[in-house]
Design goal:
Elements: H1 11-18, H2 22-32, H3 38-45, H4 49-56, H5 64-74, H6 83-88, H7 94-115, H8 121-137, H9 143-161, H10 167-190, H11 194-211, H12 214-230, H13 234-244, H14 253-267, H15 271-283, H16 298-312, H17 315-334, H18 340-356, H19 360-371, H20 380-388, H21 399-413
């Protein structure tokens, strides 16, 4: 456990150290070294883990003597405690302080050892808070920035599982671990690593099955369907969605599974099943949605309906596809936690429909917006959608078509960022 090289030389860190702002230093360190758990940071600072958790949530660590001591333990240049603080908290000699600190660290290690078979709820509270945060921001944060945090917390969750004995704690830890492994599956899929994604999804399903939670099991089946669809296995994608629908789902995953079934059926040319499934997804839109990648908000229902209808390719279906895509764009444009991937997908659906209707100007408007997005937000699925437009731009020499072709050529040429965002 160590501070990353060069950390103390950063201007923001130097400024916080001068101000004896240990809380800001902790935030910067947590961002720079996401592999450091709350427990590790507590040991490094010589404070309780609860103090670290509160500090990272914007509370606590304001007592000047504690803040200075934490900074010094982390390795900041010695920060003098001003005279007013010294008057309140007499400072013992350095040897005595070192002995006290060492003894405190030994005590914490012994207590952690005693609690290994029955960790406090606080450990799980922290883990669940981190998992919810990662799931929420996954849909709009570049994967290269996020993956190290996902990987680190997954290691923590699986390590914790081996030390649990109480059923309620085991249930919570299994849920957190399944979601984190599911996030890793999403990450692999978003970089086009479908074999790796399948392996993670299978591991997530094993964890979810042990919880018995129908919503979690449905979410994992949806993940299997999603991977199969982008791996060009629409029949498997449909079966996975239908397996998910066998569970007693009452949250937004019900709409998700119908939408996945619709998209997979449409890819196979099964018009009847696709339209019925779109109806099912629309009927169940608006159910309670968990944050980020865990939920399936109404905007996502419209995005999936748009893609399914576009695959059916009749004139009326294209009109409905555009209507659904434009509704998705409107909803995501107003949302605080909007999904960048779904917004790009909806725009590419609109562009595709316009090109099939020979409306090059309407298509170019959407293509310009899509290709302006930074590379960190591009995924394998978005790149594939963009490539599908190429055949529609052949043998047309209009200025808007040439411009669209140039933009898309450069867009698909840009490599997808390696792991360690969305789509």
């Amino acid at each position: 456990m160590c501070v990353p090289p060069g950390f103390w030389d950063r201007p923001a860190v130097t400024k916080a150290v001068r101000a004896r702002d240990a809380r800001t230093v902790l935030h910067l360190l947590h961002h720079s070294a996401p592999h450091l758990t709350h427990e590790a940071l507590a040991a490094m600072c010589g404070v309780d883990q609860s103090t670290i958790t509160r500090a990272l949530n914007g509370r606590g660590l304001t007592r000047p003597d504690v803040a200075v001591r934490a900074l010094n333990r982390l390795g900041a240049l010695p920060t003098p405690i001003d005279s007013t603080i010294q008057a309140r908290t007499p400072s013992p000699g350095s040897q005595w302080r070192a002995r006290l600190d060492a003894d405190a660290a030994h005590t914490r290690a012994q207590v952690r050892s005693l609690l290994d078979q029955d960790p406090p709820h606080q450990v799980l509270d922290t883990l669940e808070t981190d998992v919810d945060h990662l799931c929420r921001i996954y849909v709009h944060t570049p994967l290269v920035d996020l993956y190290p945090q996902i990987s680190a917390r997954r290691r923590d969750a699986l390590t914790l599982l081996g030390s649990l004995s109480r059923p309620d704690q085991s249930q919570r830890a299994h849920t957190a671990a399944a979601r984190l492994v599911g996030l890793q599956a999403h990450a692999a899929m978003d970089t086009g690593s479908y074999t790796t994604a399948i392996g993670h999804a299978q591991a997530a399903r094993a964890l979810a099955d042990r919880t018995g939670d129908p919503a979690l099991r449905a979410w994992v089946w949806a993940l299997h369907s999603l991977i199969a669809y982008w791996d060009r296995r629409p029949a498997d994608a449909q079966r996975a969605a239908e397996n998910g629908l066998t569970h007693q789902v009452t949250d937004s995953n019900l709409a998700r599974l119908h939408a996945l079934r619709a998209r997979a059926a449409a890819a196979q040319g099964d018009t009847g099943t696709a339209r019925a499934a779109i109806g099912g997804a629309t009927e169940h839109a608006g159910h309670e949605a968990l944050p980020g990648v865990l939920g399936f908000p109404t905007g996502k229902v419209h995005t999936y309906a748009s893609t399914a209808l576009l695959a059916l390719d009749s004139l009326s279906d294209r009109r409905r596809s555009i209507a659904h895509a434009e509704r998705a764009i409107a909803l995501y444009g107003a949302g605080a936690d909007r999904s960048v991937g779904d917004l790009l997908a909806a725009r590419l659906d609109v562009a595709t429909a316009h090109l099939r209707d020979h409306d090059a100007d309407g298509a170019l408007e959407q293509i310009q917006l899509v290709t302006a997005v930074p590379p960190g937000h591009r995924t394998a699925s978005i790149t594939r959608r963009a490539r599908r437009l190429a055949p529609l731009l052949i043998d047309n020499h209009a200025a808007s078509v040439r411009r669209a072709r140039d933009l898309l050529t450069e867009f698909v040429r840009t490599p997808i960022p390696a792991l360690g965002g969305n789509g």
